Amino acid sequence: YSQFFKHYKASHFSQKIQSTSNILDYETKEEQTSSDRFISQMFLEIRLVSSTDLLYKFYNKPELVSAYPLLFNLLKSIDDIEYVKCLSGIGQWMKHCYMQFSGKLTQKQHNETTVSSVINDRNNTKLKKHWNQFVKGWNRFSDRKLNIESTAMTVPTLSQNPTYVFLDHCTSRTDMPGRYIVAIVEMLQDINNNFLQSVHSHRRRSIKDEEKKTENNDNTM
């Protein structure tokens, strides 16, 4: 039996070495393949394309619209969608003004209190960011014609200097200038909702097209 075990051990050890060698060879090949793939990608041509040019390609190739509805609708609304992000800051700024001053100021004080006094009093970085978002969202619609309760109005430009803006611009009211921010928030919400609805409708349409294609393929087989 001793001879048998000697041969068995030698054979088993040899197989183990061979197996380990095969694994190492495989891993080395995998690393080389992966490395080659990464190296080849390093030399891919990169070309900057503007959103306008990319949108033009979508209009020229309708199949891209159904394949990438989210990107298509984003490109169509990209200028407005950028300002939808201001909604959060606008809401936070208006909430702060309401919580701090509602019921504590007379109408006259409310109309005479400047935004700079609110910001400087708190010295809050987040508050300043909310204010900047408020101004950015507002001025997106500056000079926009509005029809409020059958009255034609134009959204005025809001100064970026908080010293020249008063709290009556920052609270939702039925009279001016508080009514402007109500209209602006509504317009931003409409932009957001229209974008989501258009994406959903395109997606639903593309799913139906895929189902039809699959059904036709099944019928032809």
Automatic annotation (TrEMBL):
Stretches for region Disordered: 199-221
Taxonomic superkingdom: Eukaryota
Sequence ranges of Basic and acidic residues compositional bias: 207-221
Protein known as: Uncharacterized protein
Native source species: Reticulomyxa filosa
